[in-house]
Amino acid sequence: MDSRDANSSETTNVPVNPSSDSVFSHVPRAPEIPIYAVMTACSKDPSPLKLNLGMGVYRTEDGKPLLLNVVRRAEEILVNDRTAVKEYLPITGLPEFNKLSSILIFGADSPAIKENRVTTVQCLSGTGSLRIGADFLAKHYHQDVVYIPEPTYSNHPNFFIAAGLTLRKYRYYNPQTQGLDFQCLLEDLGSAPSGATVLFHACAHNPTGVDPTLEQWEEIRRLIRCKGLFPFFDCAYQGFVSGNLEEDAHSVRMFVADGGECIVVQSFSKNMVLYGERVGALSIVCKNADVASRSESQLKLLIRPMYSSPPIHGAAIAVSIMKNREMYDEWTIELKAMRNRLMSTRQQLYEALLQRGTPGDWSHIIKHVGLFTYSGLSEEQVAFMTREYHIYMPANGRMNMAGLSLKTVPHLVDAIHAAVPMSTSK
Ligand SMILES: Cc1ncc(COP(=O)(O)O)c(C=O)c1O
Predict the structure, then answer these.
(1) Which of 35, 38, 127 to mutate to test the pocket of ligand 1 (most atoms within 8 A of CB)?
(2) Residue 5 above 90 pLDDT?
(3) Where is the composition biased (Polar residues) (predicted)?
(4) Which CATH architecture best describes the domain 88-323?
(5) Measured between alpha carbons, how far is 147 from 236 in angstroms, rounded to an integer?
(6) Taking CA atoms, which of 1, 184, 236, 413 is between 20 and 30 Å from 212?
(7) What are the extents of the domains in the chain?
(8) Which atom number of ligand 1 is nearest to the Cα of residue 56?
(9) Secondary structure element (H or E) that encloses residue 322, with its range
(10) How far apart are CA 101 and CA 283, in angstroms?
(11) Tally of CB atoms within 10 A around 306
């Protein structure tokens, strides 16, 4: 009997001892990711008064998740398309999706697109696009320093750290003015090492709700180009600021119009309300078509061992909407309605705080834009509001304005009014 035979007869009869240690028994429990911990705590709270202002997702005036009508229509078209198949997509995704996504962000008459200087690849939503973008920089860019705004989206540091890049922060938000800390931003970027990558939120900054004005963007652009820094835009909320997709792309388009290079990441999670479909794109704008094409070939090498190719359904929905004029128009109307509801909720909250005579200047609530407002409430005040009023938000006081409605504004105002005396700053 050779050794393989001996093994097979002996080993198959060896009983597994369920009480023996797992080969993974050394694995420590990881701490819960803070925003998910907020969500879990909220879901376990039986109070009928509970208010969820935590996770960055849109809710209707009734507090319900939204499915856009135009998305429903697109899905019907897809279901009824008897020619549709479920073959693997190319590594870089659905070609039509890539083309239409780049038009959406750079504009239909973008010279960079016409000159084939842009490579756009479909990735797993904003998150996957950020991760591939960070990996591309780590592998193919000479400077490993990346500047991110302070504060920024809580997942941002992870992409660049995972890629092995060196993180630094630039000042962005001034808690005194509850607005942009423009001078400090210029100072920090002005002293960045040449070639450093600088991450910007294209619009609707998360978590603050504070964006630079167009004039400020222009000054930032000049500084970036003059110092040879590399801009990396994260565009997760196109349409949420002005209600207009073209207008909200302005910051990105300014940087592309000067002929310089940049990376742009897009997410359709928010503006098409496609969160779970994971629809997004990564674009690299290059100096010429040859570099763009070589960059794309390298993106394929990054994607292939990770997930091989992206999923088809969500991108197909986005294509159906973006390629059909009438459906595109319907999308923009529905998007604008979401944005308008956020604006009117801001106004209602602001007026209710004024009416209540809650001490402090609350005008930042109506000055901030997009989904979030950085309330200025301290960690202690947030904990108090959760404990006493069942109101949930991250410890930094970021409020998702979509979690609020005309009906729930009074409850939030009661809570803020009670929490404010705990602070000396308000
Ligand atoms: C600024 C920013 N970037 C990226 C993302 C990730 O978006 P996605 O859900 O498309 O991965 C988010 C999600 O909240 C975000 O706020």
Answers:
(1) 127
(2) no
(3) 8-23
(4) 3-Layer(aba) Sandwich (3.40)
(5) 18
(6) 413
(7) 33-66+340-422, 88-323
(8) 14
(9) helix 313-323
(10) 9
(11) 13
CA–CA separation, 305 vs 265, rounded Å? Answer: 21
At residue 10 the predicted structure's pLDDT band, cuts being 50, 70 and 90, is low
Q: Any idea how long the chain is? A: 426
Q: Which of 28-37, 120-129, 306-315 has the lowest mean pLDDT?
A: 28-37
The CATH superfamily holding the domain 33-66+340-422 is Aspartate Aminotransferase, domain 1 (3.90.1150.10)
Which residue's C-alpha comes closest to atom 12 of ligand 1? 236
C-alpha 242 – ligand 1 centre gap (Å): 19
Within 6 Å (CB) of ligand 1, which residues are found? 56, 125-127, 153, 201, 206, 234, 236, 267, 269, 275, 280
What percent of the chain lies above the pLDDT cut of 70?
96
C-alpha 22 to ligand 1 mean position (Å): 36
pLDDT, tens digit, 9 for 90 and up, residues 94-105:
999 999 999 999
Q: Which whole number is the average pLDDT over 7-18? A: 66
Chain centre distance of CA 391 = 23
Above 70 in pLDDT, residue 2?
no
pLDDT at 398: 95
| Distance from the alpha carbon of residue 372 to the mean position of ligand 1, in angstroms | 13
Asked whether this chain's domains 33-66+340-422 and 88-323 adopt the same fold, the reply is: no
Atom of ligand 1 nearest to the CA of 130: 4
Evaluate whether 67 touches 407 at the Cβ level (below 8 Å): no
